[in-house]
From TrEMBL:
InterPro entries, alphabetized: Cyt-C_aa3_sf, Cyt_c_oxidase_su4_bac-aa3
Keyword Membrane in record: yes
UniProt name for this protein: Cytochrome c oxidase subunit IV bacterial aa3 type domain-containing protein
Keyword Oxidoreductase listed: no
Keywords carried by this UniProt record: Membrane, Transmembrane, Transmembrane helix
Spans traversing the lipid bilayer: 30-49
Pfam family, one: COX4_pro_2
Cytochrome c oxidase subunit IV bacterial aa3 type domain residues: 4-49
Length: 50
C-alpha cells in the first residue's frame, strides 16, 4: 500500500497558495455582490411592476 502520511498538494512544485487565496476571496466578493444585486433587482421589480 502507498504511504499516505503527507498530503501531496502541499509538497507539489508550482503551487501558489497566495494566488489561490486571492482568487477565492475574489470569488466570495463576486458571489456576495451578485446576490445583493439580484435581491435589489427583485425588490425594485416588486415595487415598480405591481
Amino acid at each position: 500500500m502507498a504511504d499516505h502520511h503527507e498530503v501531496a498538494y502541499t509538497t507539489a512544485d508550482g503551487n501558489d497558495y497566495a494566488a489561490h487565496e486571492q482568487t477565492y476571496e475574489g470569488f466570495i466578493k463576486l458571489v456576495k455582490w451578485g446576490t445583493v444585486s439580484v435581491a435589489l433587482i427583485v425588490i425594485l421589480m416588486a415595487i415598480f411592476l405591481t
